[in-house]
Write a structure and sequence with these properties.
homodimer; alpha+beta; Beta-galactosidase, Chain A, domain 5; Glycosyltransferase; nine-stranded antiparallel β-sheet; 19 helices; 31% helix; Glyco_hydro_65_M (chains A, B); EC 2.4.1.64 (chains A, B); Alpha,alpha-trehalose phosphorylase (chains A, B); Malt_Pase/Glycosyl_Hdrlase (chains A, B)
């Protein structure tokens, strides 16, 4: 692990150099979003840049899906996120010399993301090629309180000499983006995705209204400006793909030109809409009326409220303290105001994975939101619920009952192009059902369960019944499916899938029994509920008695073992160097599968099985997926491999800050970032969700002296403060909360409760990973 | 089964109506080819037409292969057969009224394919819209003796009135063909695939020289004309994409205009070549010098020689007599002069499957050629040998030893776009090895074995050793592969694959021991030979002892059975209505797999196993592949289900003549046509190839009174004449031939030998097929 890229600080992420080749990474790290609107951290002036990025959640273009050999049930229409009109751009000229970080002399340049303020600051001092010096500060906010609004305060101060300052504030559509598709049909549609409908410029305000060519969306962006400067002139112009407000002023030394740019984005699922334009303009008008200070105050208020519960305290490793807050900030940003839209794998920080959402949102991100921002979790589940018509259609196409949710999608329609790792990965349906179950347990949101959650549970339960089959002995099997591990596919009785399906069936039966009045609407009778219960009970969970472990899927332990010793360090990632054919037929895991099952379906395994399973799969897991380290850490912690868990945590925590996978420029790994919290809370905190309440088993890894974290439980905050020897529980609710501390039942009421940490078991030796694939000790070279 | 489309005759296939909507089918049926050059049976005048088709074996265009989600090892370049310059076209005008079957009055129109002459005849009498009547005859030949040459004799006779006759004979490049690709990159390359290099017109001769845009081929076509008519005038012109010779004459009633058009085609793997043009012109010059009658005589000579051995006599069903000769004619045509080029799945009769060759050439077609046209078989194996460099590259890409031959290709490079049904179908390598083994056994061609065959056997044996693995008990397994059945994929220990690999390993070891001097060149030592033998001996062949049958692959009999009763007749073909996901995980077969293994590896099964296996898989096989009925028939015959075998034979025999699959317009099903011979010879004749020679077990199905067929054995002809009670064997060789008649050893010397048919066993009930998928009794409604 190399030195940290960013300055280590508990509440900020900052950097004081700027190089064109690093911008793409930093733009993702400095991405601001509210879940509805996302701006990558592009420099104000737009150039140089890594990847321009301004996204509205739900704005995408459709395109044909190409297949060398087509077949029944293959999705025909793909979806790709596109840039909306870019409202970030503020260019500056000093005596008509355009500012650029690569010309003139940049005597300082600092960028700082503030995790409490929710703002991105930038300050620099620049001397133009002709020797004129200015001091610039900009502050950018993507509002968490007003979902359509982003704003920038941009201030230029003349230093030493009087100068003519020109600031050009722009909206820009159809900017060039990196070529991603080698299919020219797709490339055509995505290169200039926006068609101009109308543009408008009045005073300091301009609006661009565009439409997408195939997906039928109307997309509007408005900007307006407050200007404070001596004797400035201002003019606004608009043309088809751009609008600009030009502000000129002459500044004496010490004088400033200050501009606040308000940008409002909105869209609508209709090609030509007057209302979408009106909404963007109204949002800007309102924001401007309330003003910049109010925007900042609202932002701080939302985040203060968030951190009050969600904050995690780490003592013993400053980089981890920073990383966990950064991770939580980005997880929150990705979903806070998504409101009936999907949360993409990269959030709104990049166009990676085409802006699609995957199972890891429900499996990795939603548990964090449920525990820290339950309103956002509710909204995300409502989005899945809204896609039920598509999921029912997909199930029908596959000749299955109920609903089959999309493996990858923006709007709910299946958009995956390789069925063995998508259509066959039916576990996503149980992952969604589990997210419903955990949300309802954590919040007590009975209204949600009755009106929305139950329908998801029912339709997914129906899917499982139709997908599996009873054998002659009455045992229930689910054949030919793909579990979480993408180096395996199309296997029978995947343990993760079967356990999650079992959980899904039981959750559906329980919820149905709680809401008999809704069952009638959904056509659920007592027989069907009994069938779910019986199917769950009959579920086959393969076990290899010889090895004393669970095979990932039936027969898995009989497969040939991957030849790790013959695999060079330069042959990772394996899928870049070996065909699926060979990966699938051998024992080698891209990511935790059975190990993840031991977290999500923790009650299905004995402690001894967890130890044996973990050791077995550690030796086979190459962690070529960013989704792997966190689940490995959670179970490592459970089986008392605390140092190993800590090494995995360090790896996950630095994934984006240090660009550990080399692809952060495509956007943040939101699910991996969520994993940072999960390792702390479910790993070192030992939190498990059961029908009878929460259980904790907090143990610190040797390098940490203290951990503190908070969980929302039924709308109140449960906070744990963990030291090596004891844990203190505090709960903000009026009703006392019953929970388990290890095997000890405790009740946390108005007074805090402190409980001792039991002695650890006799340590076992550290499990071995495949050659070249042991986790690095992430913080070693830069410990505080 | 409906009435036969074509007139039933033992040696011709003819039809006396002509309708635009039927042309596409008839063009394939009337396709003429010599394996190097193929002309679909388009009408002389080119319009109307179903699909224009003029193919040179090896002339194709390359194009990008599109993938919605790309991965390691996916082929990047696809290949598609394209039309070369069309030399078929002869348009006629009567008093300047263009002849067209859809205008004027066609009082007769007959087309006749003659299977002994190797010619396509056409005659019609037409009255123009202005009342002028002509009688036209055309005869078309694609020369089996001169691979570059096709020719047409076109004769027009004035009836009743004097008329001005204009005949326009053309060469035409880049004719419109049906849109096949929805990827516009591919479509672009294939829409106008030929770029003009040069054109030339002198006297009655014209030449077009084109090149392909990406694949880098130079393609030349020359035409020249002999004309016989009173006072005719002739002019020839050429432009970029066409050339035409216009011949005008005034004919009194009873006078004729007779034109013989000679067309020479050639190509070369070089973009601009003078020699390719010279070769096309020289071929025409030579053909013209020898003349039309000589061309016809040569054609008849080649075919007489072919039929002398190959002819099959059927008594009892005239439609079958015609069909088997038609099938043999087309199989012969597809490969006769292919000479170091692949033989496409459709021969040169259509652009279906993009002109690719597949495993079924070696598995289905080559055995027929080996027994009837061994020189063509040798050439085809030499082609595979020539692709060894590509096959070694592919093996290396897959991290395997030896050679992995292309699943689908024109020039030897892998061009398949769906790996579970291509890359994973490694059995093609053993199918090729088996074809080598059978060719050498049948011909005694030791020089071929030493110089070429051994290298194929060695490289494929190496592949198997690296592809499989030994388990702890030393048993050899081949995991994660796909057998012949395309409704299953990625399974362990596919019995067909393992048995064929075993045969491959043994054949390699035997051949290597026979040619120690070549082993040194190939780096084969005694240890490696021993390893092949040991690996073959250790090969795992799964067997389900409970059911007493072989599972298609390990665990197959434990899979869920397809719900045939719930599957409607309109849901076939299943792959058009169900996802691979569901087909793969259930017991349902598209085509014979284990049943095919019982033919190709017949010594690995006891008679009792054959009966039980056949009955088991009959109930699961839906025959959605044209490759299925013939192997089912062969084993049906072996297990004494002669009526069932006959029904399958009827189905195969009429596949193209009756357009039974509705896709004959894309080209003939050459492997299925080969299956007609295979059912007669290996099914009713019971022929099996063993290390100790041939075995026969001839039994007639109840509807036939006699069968006769011939086999090339070591360059000589063995003919069988089978009646219900006995079989007479005749052999043309000087050395007596030892063989088995049932279990009776007989020796056929200069005198014929007649042997009795043993009494049949007690009949078992007819096996059941899935609902809606029993074979139709093909000849029922049209028995003679």
């Amino acid at each position: 692990m190399t030195k940290a890229r960013f300055d280590v600080d508990p509440w900020t992420v900052s950097i004081s150099d700027v190089r064109p080749e690093s911008l793409a990474h930093e733009e993702s790290v400095f991405g601001l979003s509210n879940g509805h609107l996302g701006w990558r951290g592009n420099l104000d002036e737009g150039d140089p840049r890594g990847v321009a990025g301004s996204y509205l959640n739900g704005v995408f273009e459709e395109h044909p899906m190409p297949y060398a050999e087509d077949a029944y049930g293959y999705p025909e229409v793909g979806q790709s996120v596109i840039n909306v009109q870019n409202g970030q751009i503020i260019r500056m000229l000093v005596d008509d010399e355009p500012f650029d970080i690569e010309t003139g002399e940049l005597s300082s340049h600092d960028r700082r993301l503030d995790l409490r303020d929710g703002t991105l600051h930038r300050s620099f001092e620049w001397t133009s090629p002709t020797g004129r010096r200015v001091r610039v500060e900009s502050t950018r906010v993507v509002s968490l309180s007003r979902r359509a609004i982003a704003a920038v305060r941009y201030s230029v101060e003349a230093v030493e000499h009087a100068v003519d300052i020109t600031v050009i504030s722009e909206l820009l559509a159809n900017e060039p983006v990196p070529v991603e598709h080698d299919d020219p049909r797709v490339q055509d549609l995505l290169t200039r995705p926006l068609v101009t409908v109308e543009t408008d410029a009045v005073g300091s305000r301009a609006t661009l209204l565009h439409r997408t060519r195939r997906s039928g969306l109307a997309v509007a962006t408005t900007m307006d400006h407050e200007v404070d400067a001596p004797g400035y002139r201002l003019v606004t112009e608009a043309e088809d793909d751009g609008a600009r407000t030009t502000i000129r002023a002459r500044l004496d030394p010490g004088e400033r030109l200050v501009i606040v740019k308000y940008v409002g984005h909105d869209f609508e699922e209709s090609r030509a809409s007057a209302t979408v334009r009106a909404r963007a303009e109204t949002a800007v008008t309102a924001a401007m009326a309330d003003g910049w200070d109010r925007l900042l105050a609202e932002q701080r208020e939302v985040l203060d409220d968030y951190w009050r519960c969600a904050d995690v305290i780490v003592e013993g490793e400053p980089r981890l303290q920073q990383a966990v807050r950064y991770a939580l900030f980005q997880v929150f940003q990705s979903a806070a105001r998504a409101e009936l839209r999907s949360v993409p794998g990269k959030g709104l920080t990049g166009a990676g994975y085409e802006g699609h959402t995957f199972w890891d949102f429900e499996a990795f991100v939603l548990p964090v939101l449920t525990s820290t921002a339950p309103d956002a979790a509710r909204q995300a589940l409502l989005w899945r619920h809204s896609t039920l018509p598509h999921a029912r259609d997909r199930a029908a196409q596959l000749h299955l009952a109920g609903a089959a949710f999309a493996w990858r999608t923006i709007d709910g329609r299946e958009s995956s192009g390789y069925w063995p790792a998508s259509t066959a990965a039916f576990h996503i349906n149980a992952d969604i059902a589990a997210a419903v179950l955990h949300y309802v347990r954590a919040t007590g949101d009975v209204e949600f369960e009755r009106e929305y959650g139950l329908e998801i549970l029912v339709e997914t339960a129906r899917l499982w019944v139709s997908l599996g089959r009873r054998d002659a002995d009455g045992t229930f099997h689910i054949d030919g499916v793909t579990g979480p591990d993408e180096y395996s596919a199309i296997a029978n009785d995947n343990v993760f899938t079967n356990l999650m399906a079992q959980l899904n069936l039981r959750a559906a039966a329980d919820a149905a029994r709680r809401h008999p009045e809704r069952c009638e609407d959904l056509g659920v009778g007592a027989d069907e509920i009994d069938e779910w219960t019986a199917t769950a009970a009959a579920m086959h969970i393969p076990f290899d008695a010889d090895l004393g472990i669970h095979p990932q899927s039936a027969g898995y332990t009989q497969l040939e073992r991957w030849d790790f010793d013959a695999t060079g360090i330069d042959q990772y990632l394996l899928h870049d160097h070996f065909p699926y054919f060979d990966l699938y037929r051998k024992q080698v895991l891209k990511q935790a599968d059975l190990v993840l099952a031991m977290h999500f379906a923790h009650e299905a395994f004995t402690p001894e099985q967890k130890i044996r399973n973990f050791e077995y799969y550690e030796a086979l897991t190459v962690r070529d997926s960013s989704l792997s380290a966190a689940p490995q850490a959670v179970i490592a912690a459970e089986v008392h491999q605390l140092e190993l868990a800590y090494d995995y945590l360090a790896e996950v925590a630095t994934i984006d800050l240090d660009d550990a996978h080399g692809n952060t420029h495509e956007g943040l790994h939101v699910a991996a970032l969520a994993g940072v919290w999960t390792v702390i809370v479910a790993g070192f905190g030992g939190m498990r969700d059961t029908a009878d309440g929460l259980r904790f088993a907090p143990r610190l890894p040797p390098r940490l002296t203290r951990l503190g974290f908070g969980i929302r439980v039924h709308g109140e905050t449960l906070r744990l403060d963990v030291s090596a020897s004891e844990t203190t529980y505090r709960y903000s609710g009026d009703e006392p909360l019953k929970l388990l501390h290890f095997d000890q039942a405790i009740t946390v009421g108005t007074d805090e409760v402190t409980a001792q940490t039991p002695s650890p078991p006799v340590p076992r030796s550290r499990p071995q990973q495949p050659r070249h694939r042991a986790p690095r000790s992430a913080f070693e070279t830069d410990g505080s």
